[in-house]
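Appendix B, example 12.
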Amino acid sequence: MKVAVVGATGMVGQEMLKVLEERNFPVTELIPVASEKSVGQEITFKGKKYKVHSMDDAIAAKPAIAIFSAGGSVSLEQAPRFAANGTKVIDNSSAWRMNPANKLVVPEVNASVLEADDMVIANPNCSTIQMVLALNPLHKQYKIKRVVVSTYQSVTGTGVKAVRQLMDERAGITDGEKAYPHQIDLNVIPQIDVFLDNGYTKEEMKMVNETCKILGDDNVLVTATTVRIPVMGGHSESVNIEFENDFDLHELRSILESTEGIIVKDDPANGEYPMPLDAQGKDATYVGRIRRDFSRPNTVNMWIVADNLRKGAATNAVQIAEYLVVQKLV
């Protein structure tokens, strides 16, 4: 099976290669793809060196699957070219997520929506993925009315330039290239992506719209505040969930504990709760600080943490590819 990784030299692309190797995905030929300036460079996969290809050469090679992490504009232009040549595309950008013709998939939640004629499949936003993983089983049991989420997002979500800015500032280097308009070290920035006319950022509205699409229920009300913080390892979320039906807290916890992909880490008396360092390099989504909201009926608070480069991007994309193989959709 030929597999192309588009954006193979980037932070998420590198993580995709790592996940493909760790999960022993049946790659018979790897086709790493990157920008023209990277063509000819070598990357290592399973101990073997592969040269970086151009987009045209990769399309001509007719891979079975192409996993994209190269930005929205590249995906809009190039994903249809791969698809027209018979390649299944799994795209990590926001380009196709809200297009009614494209499926938006978290495999543990809604992989069953995928069909043989789905050629461009969207990987959701990193913050949305970890949240809906916890929301989905609770929605089935208690029916969610409203979600209020505040995120605490790692600089790795912005990319290498942001990581470099953080480390430069920490080292006292002030003249380096900037990913953010403000200092990020010893600071938090309550803006991720651009502001829209409604006063929310694009990242916040992604969480609103994508959650409803993945859950398959436009009646779920979501409001979000997304914040960048000076950490590595993963994104954290404070999530307040109001249900139509009341719940037993022990039952709710048990539902989360039995959900594929979730690890409940919730023993505050002993200082145990999820943190980004716990999630770093892991595929699981961690849930803790589970407690009733005493200010509203049928409402629970929880804290959700996941590695945004892993389950929030690379792992989720590879899991989609695995599903396509198992179901013989590729």
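The mean pLDDT is 97. The chain has two domains: 2-124+313-326, 127-308.
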